[in-house]
Model the fold of this input.
Amino acid sequence: MITPRFPSPLSASLLASPASLIPASSDQQTSSSTASFADVLQQQLTPPASATTASTTPVAAKEAAIAAELARIRQQGPVNRSSEDSEFLLKHDARLAAIFAQRNAGGKISADDEDYSQRATGMVNTFAQLSDSEKALYDRAIASGNQAAADAIALIALTRIGSDTASSANGSYNPRHTAITPENITRYFSSSIQDTDGSHATRFQALRDFLLQARQA
Done:
């Protein structure tokens, strides 16, 4: 069985709230990452005297330094990320900042935005495991207000990370090649990932019902 590494509820962990990425107090963080960026930026802004191309202008050099720093922060991932690095991400990634603002305001986040948010913050990119049609299904669940069904789709994406084989009450199967249908939810997905309070079972039931209603529509 796959045991999830996040507490319930899913929406507070798997989908990564901004509060979980930005530490409560910058006083508790070191300034090493900021100093490192300052050093890189200074080097980029001081090109060799022989450089004459547009790529060595101060503006181009600053953009290159910012891009390099964003790549460094994302590569390290969100665990133990400093407040300075978190603020840098939001300051220099307009789309990510907009997604965070929308989530903080209780807005609906699309599958594509969840996918981007995971990649932009260096999280495990579970949403990359969903097909376009599965992302569209996620968006329909969100649009209808069925957060439980959407969370179940996110759980299915999680089962597809790391291996082509997952266990279930009805034997092993390939979660990456198993379609999201009411039958497969019952036979495979619902018993592949477990929690301690039964909330995942509620989510999978919500998704199964959502799919059955769509068939009848």
Q: What stands out?
A: Residues 58-76 form the longest helix (19 residues). Confidence is low (pLDDT under 50) at residues 1-34. The two ends are 35 Å apart (CA to CA).
